[in-house]
Design a protein that fits this description.
It comes from Patella caerulea (Rayed Mediterranean limpet). This is Reverse transcriptase domain-containing protein. It holds the Pfam family RVT_1. The protein has 1085 residues and is of the alpha+beta class. The protein contains 39 helices and 26 strands. Helix 16 runs parallel beside helix 28 and helix 21 packs antiparallel against helix 22.
Length: 1085
């Protein structure tokens, strides 16, 4: 690698200890060039398949070593971008190198994982092209490396290589095997890529251009606000203060002075009182500034601090005196600090592993994960506070393109006339329940629903204050909330919110790539929770929301809509002669932010909402002001004239009731739809919040629905994003006809072969291979984070590794398995298998079944097949008014008539595992007990198949003797080095180079596979290596137990390999490692 003289001072060669062959790594300090991160450049060469390079290697592709190097780089530098370049002998066709990692909102339990995945949300919109239409095994490996490490291929994605030129040309053909790969976050800084023309070699040179910016700007003003940071350590102090007579007296005084005219002062006085308690409790205030000093590691205690101070003093003294005595003192202090630091680090990591393994509280588990493993530092964002202000002010005050002036005037007049309607409808049956006084029980329930750790609003008071002091605050809050409900006036401070920009995707320097979360005072949030509970109950009791809307409703989920769409598609595709279903997936532009509030309140009135609750909602939105908090400062406040509040608990229900009008008008004006069951109307669409899919079984019917949508959007000020809206024609093959074209406002809508709906990819032929491939690619990204976490611990402890896997990766892999999880999916299984081999420190050549057995892992099928079975039981218990239930009945009847669908597969699974009576009875008495039995039965069958495989496979002859089942080996949780674990695991799994295995691969007769390093003329198998080969006698006497040397037979050898004694296992591993080294040295000559 050549570096300009002028750039040498910014560069440093790393990983140059000979560990990584055929690659050179260079760290570049780029802060001088205005880039956000430093860059590590790797020039790599991957020898072709079957090269002599791979002899005596534990891998068959040098890209495996590159992946190991990437992990090492992540440990050296917490936040760098990667550039890889070179001849990789990988042909990648047009296959995906990049997969969008969806924010896991739709996957329960993964909300806390978002922060760890912050960098996974960079979108690469430039599609790949490639003149080379062939893919080879190295190419597949390269693509997987890209998914797991957030790398993208530059070839073809930049102007000078728009056609995807070949990089290697000979008389026998041409191919693309030379690449430049860069981190997702660096992609936008690469301005060009080019395959150059000099033909001095069969390989054409390739180059890329990196744009640097020598001038950067940051906001100079840092009006950093603070808030009270709740920690469990403060609980006792806080409790002591809130139980004092002084605190109770002040609460009573505030309450006594509360009436309809003093609401604002009451809220201010309550805030001051709670803030004073926070101050007295010495709660740490945390700056919201983006400037954060680098903290010491958690094991850096007072003793280490003292030793470090002592070391510095001795160093300063030596620099003054230059005496030998002071030098020795300094060196002694330095060694003492270093030894103590290493000891404290090891003890801390050991304790952390035990803590994580034993932790049963998911919230504490995730807190520890984020605290110790979150390496995604917030990137420097070059967006000024003024730009943030302009962006959100424009977004929340959109220019309305009114095409129906008469309707707008009618709405305004209608809402104005009904502003004080609550006095006229006291006799309404719904009035009493909706508008009754707020009870203390409702307040307690609402405070209980507050999530700890959430950011407060302008008052800076965290939710923990209210949760901890609920009994003391209850009388005052009860009186306060009822005063507010009675007069309909909210405190002025409650009209203000702080917008926190949350990065969604793409370039971090573009405001449009952020979603604003409104932070409101917790005292306001409590009241909103109470009101929301009432509104949800009222709308459910009056069936205000259509059944097709599954978003943000109790008992509904994304899986319900996924199952429903799957069932409707199967209805058509399972027809004997095939059928066609047309589906338009519609994407709305900033739907929540663009709602006209006058039209929202018109809908509320039209649907029967009235009285004090209605007036309270009007006043909440009457004056909405926001400011933006970013770059350590707050912007000025501005008015927000449209949209619902992001982050407010009322917003999902308000949006749902608003967009419900679209469903109603579509049902009224569309004519015929999709017939499901005679007990319900035809289905015309599916909704999950603002995710809309329009359905029809004719091209004209779908166009009609698009026309209705256009009229609706024009009337109600909604906007459709044409570029992101797509149409899928579901059918069993064939090309589109001339009439299968659709438009929206004269703009054509693209027809695609697949579409990701609510996180699941639906293909036009309803095949799940693309879906599962996408899930596995997304899970691979998560897997790379886990590998980094484990590497930071310094030990690949299998217990914590698979706990992380089950917590972080499995939910991503299994998402949507309710519809696709009825059969074994290789792409899904591959993710766990590769992880098992990584834990074992073995190469990809290790037999999959053996790698899983060593780690004590069954096939993932045993887990995800339970999800469709569990959903089957959910459907059995579901009310017949629910759309998924009716779709199930439709599929059930079709299955009876011989049509293959989801029900057919559920039936086959239950009969296969001996539970046919469950299908016949359509349910069980105890679902949880059955699911436990079912999963165990699947595992039992898997264990039987595993025994059959290991007993009959020539490669498993030794393993079948030393392994009796699928269970985790003790050496995977003990402190065994990478080198020793590699030696032991490879030997046990027969991924070694003994003659018995080499001969099997090269098809040498078994009797001719004799040991090459001794003259006993015996078969060079595992038993010969362990017990008989005379060349290894010395190390055998040093490391193997005396009882084995005294009686060297197969039975005793099996006892050694099945032992859980850590000393025996360690010595066994050392023997194998040293024995293999001796063999390799002899075989060199």
């Amino acid at each position: 690698m050549l570096v300009k003289n002028s750039l040498q001072k910014y560069t440093k060669q790393i990983l140059n200890d000979g560990t990584y062959e055929e690659m050179v790594w260079l760290h570049i300090n780029t802060t001088t060039f205005g880039l956000k991160k430093d860059i590590v450049v790797g020039c790599i060469y991957t020898p072709p398949k079957d090269s002599i390079f791979y002899q005596n290697k534990d891998f068959v592709c040098n890209l495996s070593a590159v992946e190991s190097a990437l992990i090492s780089i992540q440990l050296l530098y917490e936040n760098v971008d990667i550039v890889l370049m070179g001849d990789m002998n990988a042909r990648t066709r047009l296959d995906l190198d990049y997969v969008k990692f969806d924010k896991p909102d739709h996957i329960p339990g993964l909300e806390s994982f978002y922060e760890i995945f912050a960098e996974q949300y960079v979108e690469i919109d430039v599609p790949r092209k490639n003149s080379d239409r062939i893919i080879n095994p190295f190419g597949k490996h390269l693509l997987e490396m890209c998914w797991e490490n957030n790398l993208v291929i530059l070839n073809v994605r930049k102007p000078s290589d728009s056609r995807g030129n070949f990089t290697y040309v000979t008389s026998s053909g041409a191919s693309t095997i030379d690449y430049i790969l860069v981190s997702n976050s660096l992609f936008k800084s690469i301005t060009d890529f080019c395959v150059l023309t000099p033909d001095i070699s069969k390989h054409f040179p390739i180059s890329c251009t990196l744009q640097i910016c020598l001038e950067t700007y940051t906001d100079k003003v840092h009006n950093a606000t603070t808030r009270y940071k709740w920690k469990g350590d403060f609980a006792d102090k806080f409790d002591a203060f809130i139980n004092t007579d002084d605190f109770i007296d002040k609460l009573e005084y505030i309450s006594d002075n509360l009436d309809l005219t003093t609401i604002d002062n009451t809220v201010l006085d309550l805030n001051k009182l709670l803030q004073s308690i926070g101050d007295k409790s010495n709660m740490k205030t945390v700056s919201t500034s983006s400037t954060v000093s680098r903290p010491q590691p958690p094991w850096f205690d007072s003793n280490l601090r003292s030793l470090k101070h002592e070391r510095c003093n001795f160093l300063n003294t030596f620099r003054i005196t230059n005496s030998q005595r002071d030098l020795e003192r300094y060196l002694d202090a330095k060694h003492s600090f270093k030894d103590e630091y290493k000891l404290k680090e090891e003890l801390f990591k050991k304790s952390l592993i035990e803590k994580l393994c034993d932790e049963r509280d998911s919230s504490v588990f995730w807190s520890n994960i984020k605290t110790h493993f979150n390496t995604n530092k917030a990137p420097a964002v070059n967006i000024s506070i003024g730009d943030w202000y302009d962006h959100f002010k424009t977004l929340l005050n959109p220019t309305v393109d009114t095409s129906d002036v008469n309707f707008d005037n009618f709405v305004q007049q209608y809402v104005t006339e009904h502003e004080s309607n609550h006095e006229q409808i006291v006799g309404d049956p719904g009035y009493a329940e909706l508008n009754r006084e707020i009870s203390e029980a409702e307040i307690i329930h609402a405070i209980g629903n507050l999530k700890a750790g959430k950011a407060p609003g302008e008052d800076l008071i965290p939710p923990e204050f209210y949760k901890r002091a609920v009994s003391q605050l209850l009388p005052l809050l009860h009186k306060l909330y009822n005063c507010i409900l009675s007069c309909g006036t909210i405190p002025k401070n409650w009209s203000k919110s702080i917008i926190h920009p949350l990065h969604k995707k793409g370039d971090t320097d573009i405001p449009n790539n952020y979603r604003g979360i409104s932070l409101i005072d917790i005292s306001c949030k409590i009241l909103c929770i109470i009101i929301n509970e009432r509104l949800v109950k009222w709308s459910d009791e009056n069936s205000l929301l259509v059944e097709e809307q599954a978003g943000f409703r109790r008992g509904y989920s994304t899986i319900d809509n996924i199952f429903t769409l799957n069932a409707i598609v199967q209805k058509y595709l399972s027809k004997p002669k095939g059928g066609v279903l047309y589906c338009a997936f519609i994407d709305f532009s900033t739907a929540y932010d663009c709602i006209s509030r006058s039209k929202l309140f018109y809908v509320l009135l039209k649907r029967g909402l009235n009285g004090r609750i209605y007036n309270l909602l009007c006043n909440i939105y009457k004056s909405v002001q926001s400011c933006v908090r970013a770059n350590g400062t707050l912007s000025d406040y501005f008015d927000c004239l449209s949209g619902v509040k992001q982050g407010c608990v009322l917003s999902p229900w308000l949006f749902g009731i608003f967009i419900n009008e679209l469903a109603l008008v579509t049902k009224t004006e569309s004519g015929s739809g999709i017939f499901i069951n005679s007990s319900i109307d035809d289905v015309f669409l599916l909704l999950f919040a603002d995710d809309l899919s329009l359905l029809s079984d004719t091209p004209g019917g779908l166009q009609n629905k698009l026309d209705i949508l256009q009229k609706y959007c024009s009337k109600w000020n909604m906007k459709v994003n044409i570029e992101k809206s797509k149409i899928v024609v579901f059918k069993n093959g064939g090309v589109l006809s001339k009439i299968e074209k659709w438009h929206y406002q004269s703009n054509p809508i693209e027809v695609v072969n697949s579409y990701k709906y609510l996180g699941i990819v639906f293909s036009s032929r309803l095949k799940w291979n693309v879906c599962c491939k996408t899930l596995s690619m997304q899970a691979s990204k998560a897997l790379n984070v886990i590998k980094l976490c484990i590497s930071k611990l310094g030990s690949r402890n299998a217990n914590i590794a698979f706990k992380l896997f089950d917590s972080m990766v499995s939910p991503i892999l299994f998402y949507g398995a309710e519809v696709w999880g009825t059969e074994t999916i290789p792409d899904i299984e591959q993710v766990q298998t590769k992880f098992c081999k990584w834990i074992l420190c073995t190469g990809l050549k290790t037999t999959n079944a053996l790698a899983r057995a060593e780690c004590g892992r069954y096939e993932l099928y045993a887990n995800y097949v339970c999800k469709p079975i569990k959903y089957f039981f959910k459907l059995m218990l579901m009310d017949r008014s629910r759309l998924p239930k009716l779709c199930y009945e439709m599929l059930y009847n079709q299955d009876l008539n011989g049509r293959i669908n989801w029900c057919s597969r559920i039936r086959n699974i239950l009969f296969r595992y001996g539970f046919g009576h469950v299908w016949i009875n359509q349910g069980v008495v105890n679902v949880n007990e059955f699911l436990f039995r079912f999963k165990q039965r699947v595992r039992d069958v898997g264990l039987q198949e595993w025994h059959e495989f290991t007993s009959n496979s020539p490669r498993c002859m030794f393993y079948s003797k030393i392994k009796s089942g699928i269970y985790r080996e003790s050496y995977l949780v003990n402190d065994l080095s990478h080198k020793l674990r590699f030696a032991l695991a490879n030997f046990k799994c027969s991924t070694h180079l003994l003659e018995i295995e080499e001969g099997r691969r090269t098809k040498i007769p078994r009797e001719n596979r004799v040991c090459k390093i001794c003259n006993l003329n015996q078969i060079g198998d595992e038993i010969h290596f362990m017990l008989k080969c005379p060349i290894l006698n010395d190390i055998r006497n040093n490391f193997l137990p005396r009882w084995l040397i005294a009686s060297p037979n197969e039975c005793n050898l099996i006892s050694l390999f099945t032992s859980n004694d850590p000393v025996l296992i360690r010595n066994l591993s050392i023997y194998i490692s040293k024995g293999m080294e001796i063999r390799n040295e002899i075989l060199k000559y």
